[in-house]
Amino acid sequence: MKLTTKKIIAREFLTLTLVLTLGLISFLCTYPYNAYKRNQAKNISSEISEKSKKADTLSLTFKNKLGQQKWFFDKYSNQWDISGDVINTSDKLWKRLDYLALNDSIKYKWQNVWDKDLIAFNKKIGFSNPEEFQSFIDKNRVTKIDSANYDSSLAINSEIALLTKNKKNYESEILSYNEQTEFGLKALIICFIILFGFRYLFYSLKWSLKTLKQKSE
To answer: Cα–Cα distance between 63 and 69 in angstroms, integer?
Structure first.
């Protein structure tokens, strides 16, 4: 075999080896890519967890107080038909009770105004005297701080929603094994086209131009 032929074979073999190596490297690069995407999703999960705890802490007092207010309203509305009353919602009932508590009128109403049925109802659900009822109202009054903290928790929940969306985007970008293989094959084909197809096209163009420049005998 001529040395020229051997050199051509060696060159083509090295080129083919380079193509296969680049394809393999492209496939292997999908692993650190996936690791990066998983790590980003994991970091966002940690951030979501921290923000969720903070939001829950900020809103806890507000929600607990509203829960107690609703509890009292449910007991009250189950005891009497208030559909036709002016005070027919939890918010309206609590505003009335809060007004009385702030003006130190609970004890007076209890002892001098409210009828026996209402007093019996209060005692039945756990308030044996006006002081206990007053304490219940004072304890479950929603303050400006409670409302501000709740608003802050809503803002944090909006941030959490955005983070959750970003997390899903990162997770959707993680390549499956089939996608990794497909990416490696595409890289292999592209490298093959560049290193073989374009090279031979270049050789053909070079040969054509050289031929055109030759003078006819």
So the answer is: 10
Three-point CA angle 158, 62, 69, nearest 5° = 130
Q: Residue type for 154, please?
A: L
Quote the pLDDT of residue 54.
96
**Would you list the domain boundaries of the chain?**
3-207
Rounded Cα distance, 3 and 95, in Å: 102
Is the pLDDT at 1 greater than 90, yes or no? no
CA angle 100, 101, 107 (to 5 degrees): 85
Q: Report the distance separating Cα 67 and Cα 61, nearest Å.
A: 10
Report the predicted TM-score, pTM, of the whole model to 2 decimal places.
0.74
Model pLDDT, residue 205: 67
